[in-house]
Amino acid sequence: MENDICKVWDMSMDEDVALFLQEFNAPHIFMGVFAKSKCPRLIEICVGILGNMACFQDICMSISKDGNLGQVLLQRLCDSDSPTLLETNRLLLTCLSQPDVANIWVERIRENPSVYDCVCFIMSSSTNVDLLVKVGEVVDKLFDLDEELMLNWIKNGSRQSMGQSTDDSPEELPDFKVIPCVLEAAKQVRSDNPEGLDVYMHILQLLTTVDEGIQAIVQSPDGGKDTWSLLYDLVCCGFCQPDDPPIIIQEQKTVLASILSVLSAIFAAQTEQEYIKIGKNIPMIGSLIRVLQNMEDCVKRSVDNSKESKPEETEKMGVTEEDFHLKILRDICCELLSNMLQEMTKENILEGLKQGHLNEQKCSCAFQNLLPLYFASVESFLEVLRETDQTLASNLERNFPSLRLQP
User: How many CB atoms lie within 10 A of CB 294?
Assistant: First the structure.
């Protein structure tokens, strides 16, 4: 029977088969399976078939409008079987990705607070990378679609129940906070799934687009140190290493933009925290400048390639002097770098020079990107640099006349 129903699962990717199953009321049959079956594999396959059927717009609309089926599917998020959880989240993501029905599911999830508990439980305790990535994609989509739901999840600290618990639901769920759960999931996926890490970093970025999200990070028991430490490690030890080819920035631009955006928000909100002091984060400045250097190299290559191409080929390929996503990354990187340079003391600069994170080439790259928008930050840094290394300061002033001291 398992082999036969797996064949149906595979065939349900075909629209004609999916319509046939819909005509014979397969979703209603699956409701009976969910209610009575104690076989995890059968439940997984039935949810998987529904997931395939939901890829087609009309069927997705029919499934989504069935309130009873919707409730039963959300209850499957409390299932203890990882393959079933994976298929349930795949189905939810498929529905949330279709504009005509996304709001139905957002409203349904908002009205069922235990979805929050189940999702946080998975993110905080699962070691199944595929499941964590899919759950992350669902959360990312939810937050992107509905800020009110995101705010509710940020504020949600105590366990709320969806009504009667199912036999499959965990007996006791602790009080969850969404940000520690997101961090735990990110730690699990970072080594095995770069795309998954990108998803979780984007969730963090979405959380910091509202003041409540920033406060939830910086007012946590650790004052935001766990978040800062993870992101610091990713920037300084994971991405854009000195021996990486500059072109790698193209692969890392979206995840780096999310990471630096969150770091910038924390830095702006927590200047008094010890872990954020510049003396403990000098390597970060070197990494930020390396990001800018790699972007300059990519832009130069893009311009050179466009010059070699025929005009009509360039227009067809959509080649521009600066990739849109690189521009976003550059803007975020410059904002954080300017804030950090402005906080540097004489001792910090000496340490940066000693460790090789600062030199004439790197400072020139930083100034080139920061000016004229962040003139005040550059001027403040240069003023301290004059007291630290007069020769370097003079060379930079010669390269950037606008920074020269007026007689």
Answer: 24
